[in-house]
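Researcher: Batch entry, complex prediction.
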Amino acid sequence: MPSLREIRRRIASTKDIQKITKAMQTVAGVRLRRAQNRLFAARPYARKLDEMMKHLAAQTADERHPLMTPREVKVSALIVVTADRGFCGGFNSNVVRSAMESVREGSPKPGLVCVGRKGSDTLSRQRVEILTSHTNVFQVLEYAQARDIADEVTGLFTSGRIDRVDMLYNEFKSAGQQSLVTEQLLPVPPMEVEDDPGFTGYVYEPSQPLLLNDLVPQHIRFQLWRVLLESNTAEEAARMMAMDNATRNANDLIDELTLTANKIRQETITSELMDIVGGAEALK
Amino acid sequence: MADGYSLVIVTPSSMAFEGEARSVLAPGTDGYFEVLIGHVPMLTSLRPGILTIRNEDGRTQYAVSGGFVEVLRSQVTVLAETIEEVGAIDLDRARQAEERARGRLESAEEGVDVERAKASLDRALNRIRASAGLQ
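Model: Structure tokens for the complex:
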């Protein structure tokens, strides 16, 4: 049986931990809202870019852009998006586990492009081929970072060093739910071309193939940007959940410990009382 | 308004401008062009340069790093990669970016992506020029 003092000390330290988890939960909540706003802010751009791609793709359907042309996959790459920080439940380990699975089962085995410090730390200790690592991306997340990573893999694709690129990341479903998603980045999957009756056609300047040359890389950069935003939002949501759980667990623990402490206190009082009564009885 | 149209400028991270405009002067890949009301529907790409909007409030200039412009009958959309109002440019940061890009170009090591370095040098120089034009 632990002593009363020991239990009281544990209650105090659990309360301290609870304060920290509660603070982290609040911070994650604020960051979640900010991340969500950024995700929403990207939507108008996404819609417009998509429209333009579809219009152009429909007009230039007969000649495929090199970045949109599938070829035999000899070497593939997987972009693994994790967080830079921990304390977010299974967020990082889920991605890492799934990445390891793809490496084990993939044919050909993909080389990994790690985005986020956690994934890069864990995966670099495994026996996998890591093409490049990008860490400390999410502290200050800017479009330029997505652009650099996208241009890097696009470069690898164009030079023929890799034939296919997929992205593995956590998608933000709601504040309480994230789901692991794999999406193809390169070659750009074909667009569903739908007839837009209101669309009358543009004047293209410069010519359509030249425009597509600019538009396709931009589309790729933007896809990666969207994935980074998505993962960042999911990360904060996961952290908020994890910290909420931790705070609640701390509460349970405090309740339990308080109960034990009270029991011990009562027992001590009872036994002391018995001693006194017994002593008084003996004096008679 | 009879001589204006609605203009939207979006970037991957924000809605940079939403409102009426009488004219937009933009740096197209084939040279600067101006969009007034009644312009033929057009899709074009931009190179780094200065984008000028004229509306009732006067004239506003932005440094744009590239992107696309879509002109429809009553609606003009600019998809900019990044866009900054000329007065708000952080000159120090632009200079740092310039140095970095020059350093990468000069090192000429294996693995340096020359195209990318040139592109970022272009963007940095554009911002420096834009903000110098203001002073």
